[in-house]
Write a structure and sequence with these properties.
mainly beta; globular; single chain
């Protein structure tokens, strides 16, 4: 935990050469390559992860997933959470959950292909009891000066971390394709940490 139990989510520009091939972060890394902005993590949630296959029993819309494993979930546990297709048709698609009705979850936009029995999903729903998986979600608002740019890396910092760049102990680091954050636009990021 950080000072006063505060964790910080940082964005970094990384290096333009990463656009050709994204390197894995070094295990000995203690900072981002080129940090340009950070803020306190917005929410911290223990989650339980669910994986399964799409089980269409009738006609559903192209932005819906059906599974009997959804029956016990509530809207407050899943709304605004990511749902990822991890195998089969539409593999790689990540969508945001907007609603749940029985065995059917609705997401914010259509999948790139019609889901079928090969479409394997993964989602993490909010748990009221501690689990070995923690989601850290942060929204970088459109009004935040300094948050604009292309982020190729992001990280979570704790221990003695403050709002000052390059402070604290690096807890998690991600390198990725550039994500552009322009003035006036919001960017919401979720980092999932597994504690074994």
């Amino acid at each position: 935990k950080g000072t006063n139990n505060t964790l910080f989510h940082a964005l970094g520009a990384g290096s333009a050469v990463w656009d050709v091939a994204i390197p894995s972060p070094e295990k000995s890394a203690t900072a981002l390559e080129d940090e340009f902005y950070r803020k306190e993590v917005g929410s911290i949630s223990h989650v339980t992860e669910v994986t399964g296959l799409h089980e269409e029993s009738g006609s559903i819309n192209p932005n819906e997933v059906e599974s009997s494993s959804f029956a016990s979930l509530t809207l407050s546990q899943v709304v605004d959470r990511p749902l990822e297709i991890i195998d089969g048709t539409a593999s790689g698609d990540v969508r945001t959950i907007t609603n749940i009705n029985g065995n059917v979850i609705t997401v914010d936009q259509d999948f790139t292909a019609t889901l079928d029995a090969t479409s394997k999903f993964r989602l993490g729903y909010i748990s009221q009891t501690p689990t070995g998986i923690v989601d850290l979600m942060t929204t970088f608002d459109g009004t935040e000066a300094g948050a604009e740019g292309s982020a190729r890396e992001e990280a979570i910092f704790g221990a003695d971390a403050t709002a000052e760049l390059s402070t604290g102990i690096l807890m998690s680091i991600i390198r990725e394709e550039p994500i552009s954050k322009v003035n006036g636009a919001s960017l919401t990021r979720l980092v999932r940490i597994r504690i074994d």
